[in-house]
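ok so for the tutorial part 2 we go from a plain amino acid sequence to predicted structure tokens. step 1 is just haveing the sequence, like this:
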Amino acid sequence: MALSDNIRRVVTTIDGDDKAVVLFDSENPHNFKRQHGTVSRLFWVTGESPADIAGTADRAASFKGIAPPVGGSVLRIVDFPPTPPEVEKLDANYQQDHIGELSPKRGLPPRHPFMHRTRSVDYALVLFGEIDMLLDEGEIHLKAGDILVQQGTNHAWVNRGTEPCRIAFVLIDAKEP
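step 2 — the prediction. this is what the tokens look like for a chain of 177 residues:
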């Protein structure tokens, strides 16, 4: 089954008359094709906690990166296509060479070329498909309807199936353990 590329984003706010109104209602404009066919759709970003809910700016428009801003949060949906066999042949340090500070925690050899981590609490809801999350030791198989709470762990996403997997993520900045 092909996943729809058109995901609607609706953002509401309080206007100058103190009324609830729609700020944005359109197909999500912040879509990024990443390595090996993965598509990341960024919906909203906060840069502080408690979040600033005033203003009319598109809080996702200028954000770059994976991890949330210090004190902030990120909402995104990621489509993971089946992982191509050539990925297993990449150097295990592939992510370290490409994402720097998001590389696996120092001192631990990466188990997979896509191994990475963010200093965040991540809420992940599998919307469609199945995927394996590799950890430093072991792995967990997730399927549609499963919810994962991840607390700053080294991990890699591997889709060993034949269908894409879609996951909604909320990343919230956290302290290092």
